[in-house]
Fold Rieske 2Fe-2S domain-containing protein.
Amino acid sequence: MEPSIAEDETVPQGGVAYVICSMSDIPSQRARGFELMQVAEDGTEQPFNLVIVRWGRQVFGYVNRCPHDGVKLDWERNQFLDPNGIRLMCGKHGALFELGTGACLEGPCKGKNLVPVTLSVIDNDICALGVTLAEDVDDDDEDEVTSCSDEGGGV
Ligand code: FES
């Protein structure tokens, strides 16, 4: 996978859109996980696990962490959906989450929510907004992000 840089006027002034992957990297009605690094306020880098669901032209992003136990949902890599393919599911406990809202509908965390991550599709790339990610993660994993600063910003 070769993420590319995308620019778009929908990116908030001074904000950064991180290209996570291309739309074509996630088939419609599927979900995929990304193991990234986030830069915290103190400058340290921390794991940032993201799950993206694609439904046609719509994309939904959540932190890949169950609200009840703090673990990843995909106990088998990239197995995020329930057998019907219409909910996110914890692979260990079977908790079910609504695709569009991240609300837990059934399971030990019923009534809680996955943490949403704002996504935007820019030039056919799925980009994450509102987070600060470490760029060019240099490990053996295929996940890697690039960013596009709003260089036209005046202030
Ligand atoms: S870790 Fe929360 S339902 Fe499985």
Observations:
- The pocket of FE2/S2 (inorganic) cluster is lined by residues 66, 68-69, 71, 90, 92-93, 95, 107-109 (CB under 6 Å).
- The radius of gyration is 16 Å.
